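ok trying this again, last paste got cut off
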Amino acid sequence: IKEDVTRLIESSEEAESMVYNMEKTLKEAIMESEIKGRQEGKQEGILEGRQKGRQEGRQEGILETAKNFIKQGVSLDIIAKATGLSKGELAQLS
């Protein structure tokens, strides 16, 4: 019986050690995943910001070009075809 109790205690301590190591490993994996997720999110945000900035810059360029054409007396039909802006949008620039 003494041997059985000793084995039970040893296996209990071994089981506790295994559970502790598993918890530690799981916590480390979760932390690594969170860090990786933040980094990926940050990169994605940067890329989206750049893309949005480019789109806004293109639109500003189109509007500026349209304004210059209007000042030069170019037909609104021609400006609309060249820029993709509607006549309504061009009227607002006038």
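PB: full thing came through this time. The chain has three helices and no strands.
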